[in-house]
Amino acid sequence: MGRHSKLSSNDRRDIITMRKAGSTLQSIADKYHISKEYVRQINASCKYAASQSHIKKIIYPALKIWLLKHNFTIADLADLISGCSYSTVWDTLVGRVPPTSKIIIELMKATGMSFEDIFGYLGCYIPKYRNMSMEAMRK
């Protein structure tokens, strides 16, 4: 196999694009004369870097810590919240929109954290839900 250092940033970008488009590890490896494992590592490092940069933008510190501790991406969390798109969850977590009762309940269920744990002092801006239990929110 070829040396890894000869891959340019454009090659790496192409590898990631090819993998997202469904190309196999082997076909990409053959094209660039590298190992399948190196193709996998390039893709994994890209996913990790993207998830880390997005997590840094979350305005709820305890939720940010929970995601990092459990090695979850925002996409993983969005998958746990049925009926909510990634963009809805993202907009909520970065503070573009206030959390809906559905997202609040689902975040509490997914993380096992209380409202206060998740939203901390920022929860004071969501007074409608601040003192409610999960049972009360479901009604």
Record the SSE blueprint.
Layout: H1 9-20, H2 25-32, H3 36-55, H4 61-69, H5 74-80, H6 86-93, H7 101-111, H8 115-119, H9 127-130, H10 134-138
Helix pairs in contact: 1-3, 2-3
What does this molecule look like?
With 139 residues, the protein is mainly α. The chain contains ten helices and no strands. It has two domains: 4-49; 57-138, lambda repressor-like DNA-binding domains (434 Repressor (Amino-terminal Domain), Orthogonal Bundle), CATH 1.10.260.40. The protein is elongated and about 50 Å long. 64% of the residues lie in helices and 0% in strands. Helix 1 (9-20) crosses helix 3.
End-to-end span in angstroms?
Answer: 61 Å
Q: How many beta-strand elements?
A: 0
CATH topology heading of the largest domain: 434 Repressor (Amino-terminal Domain)
Structural class call reads: mainly alpha
CATH class of the largest domain: Mainly Alpha
CATH homologous superfamily of the largest domain? Answer: lambda repressor-like DNA-binding domains
Q: Which of globular, elongated, flat, extended, rod-shaped describes the shape?
A: elongated
Q: Helix and strand string, N-terminal first? A: HHHHHHHHHH
- Estimate what percentage of residues fall within beta strands: under 5%
Radius of gyration: 20 Å
The helix content, as a percent range, equals: 55-70%
Q: How many H/I helices?
A: 10
Major beta sheet summary? none
Low confidence ranges: none
**What's the overall average pLDDT, rounded?**
79
Number of domains: 2
Specify the CATH architecture of the largest domain. Orthogonal Bundle
